[in-house]
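Subject: sequence -> structure tokens, single chain

Hey, anyone have a minute? Need the predicted structure for the following. Not urgent.
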Amino acid sequence: MKQNMGSTDSFVRVMIGLAFYVNIFCLQPGLGAVGAIILFALGTLCMAAAWVKYCSVLALIGVNTCSSSECSSEASCSCSAGTSASHH
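Reply:
Had a minute. Here:
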């Protein structure tokens, strides 16, 4: 899985994920268990996408928000399985 998300996009997703988590506690009395589970799932999805720097929706529509300097650095490169670092 090759990363397709830049640092700005990742930061925004972390903030959105945290907002979902905070809304679980702020809206809990009127939200109900199902609503809390949905908000938790959405928050976790946003946080996970930010952590791995890959979004399947962006991949589906062919968008890459990763700048060339972020994607070309060896430390942040997420190469697909079976390829070596010498192919970069």
